[in-house]
Amino acid sequence: MTPTAFSWHDFLSQTISDFGCTTGTLHRLDTADQHLKLVAHQGIPEALMPIIQSIPMGKGIAGVAAERKEPVEMCNLQTDASGVAKPGAKQTQVQGTLAVPVLDGERLCGTLGIGKLMPYDFTAEEKTRLLDIASSIATRMRTP
Fold it and tell me: Which of 2, 30, 39, 52 is 20 to 30 A from residue 45's alpha carbon, by CA?
C-alpha cells in the first residue's frame, strides 16, 4: 500500500479549520524573481486570483510578512488604514487576518495566511502555533 500523496490544498484546508477561519492562502517564494507564487487557496474571490498569483516582497499582507519574516495581523481588514493591505483585499470580506512567513531556519520559503469573516485579534499563542505549522512545511516549500 502506498502512502497518501501530500496535498497543499488539504494542508491549507485543515489549517484554516483548526483556527476557525474561512479563508487562507499559501505562497512559495520564487527565488528567481523574489515573488511569492500561489500554491493553494481557499475562500478567495475569483476576481482576486490574478492579483494573488504572484506577490512582490513587501506588497500586501503576505508580502510584508515575507519581507519582515514575522507575523502580520489585522484585527479588521475592512477598516484597516495602515496601507499594508492592498485595496482589492477588501473584496475577500475577511476582517481578522494573520499571515506568517514559512521559514526554514532563517531562510524564507513562503507565506501562510488565514482569515476570519469577523474582527478578530489573534492571540500570541495562535501566532506561535501558526508559525510552528508554517515551519513544519518549510522543507517541502523550499525552492532549489
Answer: 30
